[in-house]
Amino acid sequence: MKIIVLAGGLSTERDVSLASAAGICRTLLEKGHDAFLLDVFLGLENAPENLEDVFTLPGHGLEIAKNISTSEPDLAAVKASRPDQSDCFLGPNVIELCRLADITFLGLHGGEGENGKLQATFDLLGIRYTGPDSLGCAVAMDKGFTKEIFLQAGIDTPKGAALYRFSADRSLAALGLSLPVVVKPCSGGSSSSAQDPAGSGEAAPADGGYKIAVVRQLDHASMNEIRDAIFAELDAKAAELSLTISYEDFNGNNDTSTLSQIGAQILADQYDAIIPIGTLAAQQMVSVAEESQTPVIYGTVSYPEVANLTGIDYVTGTSDALNVELLLDMMLAADPDIQTVGLLYSTSEVNSAPAIEEAKAYLDEKGVSYLEKTGTTSDEIIAAVNSMLGQVDAVFTPTDNAVQATELAIAPILAEAGIPHYAGADSFVRNGAFATCGVNYTDLGTQTADLALEVLQTGEFPEYVTVSGDIITVNTDTASTLGLDYSLFQDMGSQVVEVQPTQD
Question: Which of 185, 187, 193, 423 is a Cys-bridge partner for 428, taking CB atoms 3.0 to 4.6 Å apart?
Answer without folding.
Answer: 423
